[in-house]
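To the team - glutathione complex, inputs and output below.
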Amino acid sequence: MSKHDLVLYHSPQTRGSGIVFLLEELGVPYTLKVLNRNKGEHRSAEFLAINPLGKVPTLVHNGAVITEQVACYLYLADLFPEKGLAPSLKDPKRGEYLRWTAYQGSSFEPAVVDHALQRKAGDPSIMPYGSYSIMLDALYKQLDNHSYLLGDQMYALDLFWGSTLKWCREFNLIETTPIIDAYIDRIVSRSAFIKAIEIDQALLQKQAE
Ligand SMILES: N[C@@H](CCC(=O)N[C@@H](CS)C(=O)NCC(=O)O)C(=O)O
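Output:
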């Protein structure tokens, strides 16, 4: 068993693309198993046995199945501590790192989906994210005075947030500010992000043949 024995189930231009970005940033070997969603490959019995939701990203490592983007980012960054993309358990930044990584799945995504679908907002006291604007303001405030979410050092969560915010900006799901635009651009200009885009383009081309 090796820590490099990583398999990522992925479809191009999905939430899986962020995990490809992270793997490229880590510079570790991995195997991509590409699912053609147009052909319904993510609904095959074989894949549903691994992830009953039929969703990507789905990571398999030494027999363990890791689903949910948040878990995939945390898992991979911890698996390669020498790469410096996760504060260690003893690092005072660890709590904030977990907080702002979990925030993506627990608060940001549900708020953005509710907002995009124009669902009637419930009272902030019963919504898991308060309100869309409270949720977004808190995130943006975190980026007011630094280059990265936790200060001047980039961690895996910045790859997560940079690519998430870019995607949301493209689909007009959020309004950005010059500070947020600069943050997104700082992240997506990284060579690992450009490589992940190229991988997706090649996969899309192959799937279209
Ligand atoms: N909660 C999941 C969501 C994953 C997700 O929605 N993935 C989409 C692609 S962006 C998917 O696999 N959709 C396939 C389908 O259900 O048709 C996560 O955070 O990873």
